[in-house]
Amino acid sequence: MLAQEMRLLSIMVVPEPPSPRPNANLIVGFTAELACAPLVVAAELGLWSDSGLSVQLRRELGVAGLRDRLLDGSLQAAQVPCGLPLALLAASVPHAESPPLVAGSILSRGGQALVLSKAIWPSEIPMAGISGHLLRSGRKRVVTLGMASRHSAQAAMVQEWMPTAGLSPEQVHLAVIPPSQLDAHLLAGNIDGFCAGPLAASGSVMQGHGRVAAFSLQNRTPTSFLPPDTVLTLQSVWARRFPKQCQSLLSGLVEACRFCDEPANRLQVAEWLSQGHYLRVPVARILRAWNPLTGHGEAHEAANEVSSETSIVFHQEEGPRPTAAQGRWILDHALETEERSRLPASALDAVFRMDLSEPETQKPSRSALPSAAGGAYKPQTPTTRGADATQPSQFCVTPLK
Q: Which architecture, in CATH terms, is 2-109+226-261+310-368?
């Protein structure tokens, strides 16, 4: 399956995109998730237009649509799962001289929740007993879990969660499904659960279609590493040819991310997001999704009560500027082994561009940037992940009772 996906991506990456245009309605894509909030805020506050940048936001059904539009030149930038730019580079090796896409900003961190159907995980069964429950009920089969992308923090969460449920990788099948369709597939019994952002997860929980088995902000401490979820990726050709426009685009997002993380702004952001050309869902549902999910979904606050707690982070401590640690986590956890083996040692520095939001006069030369991969890529083994304080740890998944 992975080999087929790699061949498909290779076919799609090779063609050169059309020559980009600098100012004529820069088109930025997104999917209807809470993670798109910084894009919406930047547009609604006029953070881009104030700097002379004309930006049009375009909604796509899923990640595949964003990927296709980026590669054919219909989009110059988009909100995508964190591992997609690296995956496309792996698919293009050795044909491409530079990555097809570069990541200029971390749009969101956290925000993932794993939802299981009640048939797979009845309320009287502890999570560690899920595997035994399937055997006793005569359902010895593969468990199918949906997600927006295999190159995502969602896939990493599923991999971390499986041992807590007594499931082996052979017992779990990952199905790529647009976020807006996950709840319908769960209700129809086509999937046994899904890992998604807070909007899709809260919808299933509130309607009684599933239970939350794990969420990314669970057991988080102020000093814990919070993995990236989505990034703003840009066509590398466009970013290279129009650095001033790229800087304006990313600078506006920094302010938008800071605005989104202020609890006092949450109601205003939810009202913008609720509009038909963005999320097209009620304000109350957005606010419920923004509050932290619990194991059974009972603790959602009323729509008119804004909490300082959150299910997703846009700025806070680290800010949206990509760092070497975030890139390394993505490399280790959001790509398949075969994809990692195809990447050159310079992959992280080439894709996660820490310099794109800086003025040309302040940008360091590429040779001066630290090598995030540290030479030839050496993947961390599961036994050492999180053991070294200098290396970012994966999700801490504690079974919910």
A: 3-Layer(aba) Sandwich (3.40)
